[in-house]
Structure formats: C-alpha cells, structure tokens
C-alpha cells in the first residue's frame, strides 16, 4: 500500500471516529434534554409543588412587607434568615421524591431499558427539577426587589448613614446566592431520594438531612467551640463547612454593603465557596451512585 493510500485510510478512520464521537455526544445531549423535560413536566403537573411554592412565596413576601421595606439592604437583612431556613425545606420538598417516585412506579426500570446512563438520568432529573425550584424560590424575591422603589419607607438611622451603598446590586447578589443555595439543597435532596427504599424512609432521611443542613453542623461548631475543639482562629473556617453557614457567610460578606460589622462571626468567604461546591458535588455523586443500585431492581 502506498503512503498516499495509507494516509487516506488513516484520515478516513479519524473522521469516522470523530463522527462516532459527535453522534455519541449528540445522543447523550438529546437524552439529557428528554430526561430534564420529563422531570420539569412532572413538577408542573404536580399540585403539591405549586402549593409548596405558594406557601413559601407568601411567607417570604409577607415578612418584609409587615415591617416595612426601607431599601435594598434592609430587604436583604430582613430576608436572609427566613430564606436561610425556608429554602432547604422547599428544595427537599421538590427533590425528595425525584428518584424514589420513579423507582416506586416502575418508571425507573423502564428508563433503564433505554440508552440512558445513570449520570445522564440524575443530571437530567436535577436540571428539570432545578428549573421549577428556582422559579418557586426566586420569583418572590424578584417581585420584592422590583417593588422596592414603589413601597420604600424611610430608612432607620444606620441605613441613612450608609445611603450611598443602598444599591440593587447587593440585592441581586443575594438573589444569586439564594439560587446557589437552593441548588445545593436540591442536590442533597436527590441524594436522599436515591438512597431511600420507601416513602417512610425518605421522609425520615429528608427530615434528618434538612435539619443537619440548617442547624446540625452549626450546632456541632458551637459545641466544638464550647469544648475548645474549635478555636477563635478556626471558627470562621468551621462555620463555612455547612451549607447554611456558607450561605450566611457569603450573604454577610458580599450582599450587605459592609453595614453588618458586629454580631456573631461570619464564615470565611473562600471556605464558604468550597463548602457549597463540596456539598453540591457530594449530593449529585451520591444520587448518581444510588440511582442505579441493585436495590432499585
């Protein structure tokens, strides 16, 4: 065989491999989109999710309006604690049945007969439910932010003295951090759903994990501080290890304009970012490993 023929054959083989790879990537993306659309449609059709979103929205909107909206920064401070507590609960409501419901109905077995691997199934389910969750969680916040210029009331002295920093930018940061916090909570909820083998077990596990995420790790940090295990130098790092502490630390560091300089210490920013990313990765990894486990058959 001549060198030209060999070169042509090599080029043809390479082109064939690229075509196969391109088709493989395209097929996977189509499968991912189909799974995500299916998960989103499930959220839209389920009235319980709508009811949960309405209850959350009413609570989030009513709390700041009851006390009066003095500006964007007062709004961030009014919302930070309710959002810190309520968002994980809403996320677990959206995610706890994600894998478990498919397994209980037999749909998961049907899905496994298609060329869909476990990572595509979990990621697609996560993306579809994430869209519904983000709409439920962020819509009330956006509505409040838009309403500030129309319902703003005279600010207290501390905010008057910092009037130049009362910018919608800080509220936008708060909304973005809330979105990230919701996605991390959803990933943890899906991990619970993939490991649970019954609705009762899922509810119990969801309650335990949600409580651990909201108050459990922080309580351990306080206990460690009281016992001398956690010192003043490491307190800021320890606080960033929980999803709640990480969210709180990032809000105080980036979305309050430097007004909050007293009170309990906030989590370290770098540790908070690593903490949120770590919990997100762990949640999706556990969900992926558990979804295709033998116990699902």
From TrEMBL:
Extent of Low complexity compositional bias: 7-18
Region (Disordered): 1-24
Name of the featured protein: ABC transporter permease subunit
Keyword match Heme: no
GO molecular function per UniProt: ABC-type transporter activity
This protein's GO CC annotations: plasma membrane
Alphabetized UniProt keyword annotations: Membrane, Transmembrane, Transmembrane helix
Transmembrane feature ranges: 48-73, 85-105, 126-150, 170-191, 203-226, 269-292
């Amino acid at each position: 065989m001549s060198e030209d023929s060999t070169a042509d054959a090599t080029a043809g083989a390479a082109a064939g491999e690229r075509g196969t790879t391109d088709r493989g990537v395209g097929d996977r993306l189509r499968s991912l989109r189909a799974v995500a659309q299916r998960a989103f449609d499930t959220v839209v059709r389920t009235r319980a999710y709508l009811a949960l979103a309405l209850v959350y929205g009413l609570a989030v909107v009513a709390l700041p309006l009851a006390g009066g909206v003095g500006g964007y920064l007062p709004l961030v401070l009014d919302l930070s604690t309710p959002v810190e507590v309520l968002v994980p609960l809403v996320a677990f409501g959206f995610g706890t049945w994600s894998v478990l419901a498919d397994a209980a109905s037999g749909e998961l077995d049907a899905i496994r007969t298609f060329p869909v691997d476990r990572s595509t199934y979990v990621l697609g389910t996560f993306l579809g439910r994430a869209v519904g969750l983000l709409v439920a969680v962020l819509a009330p916040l956006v509505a409040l932010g838009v309403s500030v210029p129309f319902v703003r009331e005279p600010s207290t002295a501390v905010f008057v003295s910092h009037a130049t920093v009362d910018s919608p930018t800080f509220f936008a940061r708060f909304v973005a951090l809330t979105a990230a916090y919701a996605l991390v909570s959803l990933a943890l909820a899906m991990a619970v759903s993939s490991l649970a083998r019954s609705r009762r077990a899922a509810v119990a596990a969801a309650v335990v994990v949600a409580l651990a995420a909201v108050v459990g790790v922080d309580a351990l940090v306080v206990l460690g501080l009281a016992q001398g295990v956690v010192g003043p130098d490491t307190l800021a790092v320890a606080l960033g290890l929980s999803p709640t502490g990480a969210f709180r630390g990032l809000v105080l560091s980036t979305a309050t304009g430097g007004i909050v300089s007293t009170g309990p210490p906030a989590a370290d920013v770098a540790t908070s970012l690593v903490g949120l990313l770590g919990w997100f990765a762990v949640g999706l990894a556990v969900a992926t490993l558990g979804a295709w486990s033998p116990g699902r058959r």
